[in-house]
Specification:
single chain; elongated; 55% helix; 98 residues; mainly alpha; 2 helices
């Protein structure tokens, strides 16, 4: 029997780094406790999840990268249009000689 753990968090729009830091540790502690119960670990000092670096608030959004998306869309459409043109030419030649 497989058990799943679901955490639902709404996006945080708070600028207090200490609040977010303490919230992150509270979440990790809760997940550790649930995992200990799920895997029936008796040792209270066992940590299944460790935070090695403190959480950092990003300066700028990392997604969506509009320039990258535009470049990928342009390149994909160029390759697709070349493929369609070659495929159309192949079908046209196949009908003529076939």
């Amino acid at each position: 029997m497989t058990k799943t753990l679901e955490l639902q968090l709404s996006p945080l729009k708070h600028k207090d780094k200490n609040l977010i830091y303490s919230l992150a540790f509270a979440i990790v502690d809760e997940v550790n406790e649930r995992l200990k119960r799920q895997f029936e670990i008796k040792n209270p000092d066992t940590k299944l999840i460790l935070i090695t670096d403190p959480p950092v608030m990003p300066e700028h959004p990392s997604w969506p990268n509009k320039k990258l998306m535009t470049a990928v869309a342009f390149a994909s459409s160029a390759f697709l249009s070349i493929f369609i043109a070659l495929f159309y030419d192949w079908i046209k030649g196949y009908r003529r000689h076939g």
